[in-house]
Design brief:
CATH topology of the largest domain: Diaminopimelate Epimerase, Chain A, domain 1
Oligomer: single chain
Shape: globular
Order of helices and strands: EHEHEEEEHHHHEEHEEHEEH
Helix content: 40-55%
Number of strands: 12
Strand order of the largest sheet: 6-5-11-12-10-9-8-7
Distance between the termini: 58 Å
Radius of gyration: 19 Å
CATH architecture of the largest domain: Roll
CATH class of the largest domain: Alpha Beta
């Protein structure tokens, strides 16, 4: 039996996370799964996750705790594997978390897993650039949405919201009752029709387009508030999200978006 030197904590909240869990498990690594959605944080780990980790550490105090895409300060002297920017730390990395885990394990990714990695780094544009077929892109995106917990009702709401969207040239503003965890069916449908889009969701605002780094940096340097913010994607095209942005921040973001 393999003696584990690491304990991996992975929130299962999208396709990349599912495949990281599969890869680690098939490699004989110890994985503790959190059910937190996007924006998972160390301080919000579930009691059962904390209990399992502490039991494992009591059995072997010398193992290293590794959190995969968990924001905040690591617990148990652990470390992070990530490639996102969070409100309290910039963990940008040229490799996706899946690729970093594969490198750590010394594993070569299959074509499918390389596509999962590209999807997480740069979404549909990255998949196109990597040579994925239309069928492969459709499969990856559908599987990712399912892994995020998107339901048929969410898909229907995305269609309704897009039908009522406001267009400003090649930009579009979509208002929806969906939460920040359910916006992929909107983005997947708008892609190819708009150059950039702003989604006003039930609990967050999400920008997608080539100016994500500029917007995220500007908000971070300002005194305008949101409960939490995050950003990712490739330099050429990505996203920036803001949970419960203040009215003043909403106004500034909309002006930024419309005026270019």
């Amino acid at each position: 039996m393999k003696k584990n030197k690491k304990i991996f904590i992975v929130p299962r909240n999208d396709l990349e996370a599912v495949e990281i869990i599969n890869l680690l498990s098939h490699s004989g690594e110890k994985v503790v799964v959190s059910q937190q959605r996007w924006g998972a944080r160390w301080e919000n780990l579930e009691p059962e996750v904390v209990s399992e980790v502490e039991t494992l550490l009591a059995q072997n105090p010398n193992v290293e705790v590794v959190g995969v895409e968990i924001a905040g300060a690591p617990r148990w002297d652990g470390r992070n594997i990530d490639h996102h920017r969070w409100s309290d730390s910039d963990r940008s990395h040229e490799s996706s978390s899946l690729e970093q885990v594969a490198d750590l394990l010394g594993v070569t990714l299959s074509r499918y897993l390389r596509q999962v990695a590209e999807n997480d780094k740069g979404w549909i544009p990255a998949l196109v650039k990597a040579g994925a077929t239309a069928g492969e892109i459709g499969y990856i995106r559908l599987t990712d949405r399912c892994s995020q917990g998107v339901t048929p009702d969410d898909e229907a709401e995305a269609v309704r919201a897009i039908a009522l969207a406001v267009w400003v040239g090649k930009r579009v503003i979509v208002t929806t009752t969906l939460s920040s965890f359910q916006l992929s069916p909107i983005s997947d449908r708008v892609y190819g029709q708009a150059d950039e889009w702003l989604v006003k969701a039930a609990n967050a605002w999400l920008y997608n387009g080539p100016r994500h780094t500029e917007l995220f940096g500007w908000v971070k340097s300002s005194s305008l508030g949101s409960d939490r913010d995050w950003s990712g994607g490739s330099p050429a095209f990505g996203y920036a999200g803001f949970v419960n942005p203040s009215k003043e921040l909403q106004s500034k973001i909309e002006k930024f978006f419309v005026e270019g």
